[in-house]
Amino acid sequence: MTIDRHPPVTDWATDFDHTDPVWVNNPFPIWDELRETCPVAHSNRYGGTWLPVTHEHVSAIAYDTEHFTSRAVVVSEARPGPNDLPAPIGVAPPITSDPPFHAMARRLMLPAFAPKKIEALEPFTRDLCNELLDALQGKDVVDAAVDYAQHIPLRVIAKMLGFPAADADYFRHIIHLILEEGINIAEEDDIRLLEGQSIDAYFDAQIADHVANPRDDLTSFLLEAELDGNKLMHEHVRGTMLLILVAGIDTTWSAIGSSLWHLANNPADRQRLANEPELMPFAVEEMLRAYAPVTMARMVAKDVEIGGCPMKVDDWVLLPFPAANRDPEFFDRADEVVIDREENRHAAFGLGIHRCLGSNLARMELRVAVEEWVKRYPDFELADPSAVTWAAGQVRGPRSIPVRLPA
Amino acid sequence: MRVHVDADKCQGHNRCYSLAPELFDVDDLGNAVELNDGVVPEGLEHKARLAMANCPEYAISITE
């Protein structure tokens, strides 16, 4: 099924590929060099893709909803097809929506993810972290990504949607397909044709169950919700479920994993967090800045020039918020993790109207996950640095982090 | 000292509310509003500056 369309990159300014193993393993030097030499790179891969790497350009594009559409936000061989809901709605509202529909679809979801709603999930999350940590007790080497980080957002999102916790493996499979395998699948074998029926059938079963037994969760909320006096279209409900599943799990799992990976590598930071728990809010933001998991994408809606580069309709544009977060023009000591950095206007959750809907949830999960881990294991180290693997694609985080726990 | 949230710029990042809940609240949509007409009680000036300096959207301003 997967065809190798990705020969090794030899020139990052003219032929970059965000799935190249060099990028996947360590993208920071690539962005640093491009910022100096070619701050808006271009590649013919994926049918034509641009890559801005400065905070100035990334934010300019994020704010410009006239020239850039969110109709598709994952760069892949396939452009959105004739079967996909077109702009301004898109396949997974509101992330794939443009103004003016976007504001309505987003407004609908915002209350469910507002800070005070999310605070109520903190005890559940803390208990879950402790349950996972209990299961690690007595082991010498554990995988901080597989045995800990990944389970936290999977279980929290399943609970929010009202899906069975036992289906976690299935969600993992879907997410992997969309975010990693999906990149290589061309239009003719569109992922939704291959897997779409199974995802849609799963969502339909959950919807039917919620229609029969309404309860206090996001699925029942979506089924009851109205836009302009009408219930949401069935495709809108399923699209938003897909969005929550895909955007709410891999991302947070990546942020937790990167933070634990950093702490495993940096005993001084570990020590400070264990001794000065009041630093945690600043440390969490710094981890989000330095290891922002999410690179978004846009398509060009109207021809436009950015940094002197002529972007044409239907070109892809990667929006690497992680690169903006490492721009030395915007941040002091941009390439260092400053665990007590007080001024941190980072863009890990995006900028403008598409600010991550789940940012309050993600931040809570990350803080609680790191707090509980550090409380239990203030001392731990990488068991084998070469065994750490990173996810390829637009969500970056460690997928395996073998760590040695103190006896 | 007074803080002010520009409602047109605020996108609900919630940085001000988490850094300075004494000075800001958030509404049901998660957007920020200043408390007490924005008046910063004595001793909270540092928190006000932190909130301003951490807003990714530059939505917070301070007048002295």
Automatic annotation (TrEMBL), chain A:
Family per similarity comment: Belongs to the cytochrome P450 family.
Coiled-coil stretches: none
Name by which UniProt lists this protein: Unannotated protein
InterPro entries per record: Cyt_P450, Cyt_P450_B, Cyt_P450_CS, Cyt_P450_sf
Native source species: freshwater metagenome
Record flagged with keyword Cytoplasm: no
Any one GO molecular function term: iron ion binding
Record bears the keyword Metal-binding: yes
TrEMBL record, chain B:
Keyword ATP-binding included in the entry's annotation: no
GO MF term set: iron-sulfur cluster binding; metal ion binding
Keyword Transcription attributed: no
Keywords: Electron transport, Iron, Iron-sulfur, Metal-binding, Transport
Annotated InterPro entries: Fe-S_cluster_ET
Matches recorded under SUPFAM superfamilies: 4Fe-4S ferredoxins
PANTHER family: FERREDOXIN (PTHR36923:SF3)
Designated name of the protein: Unannotated protein
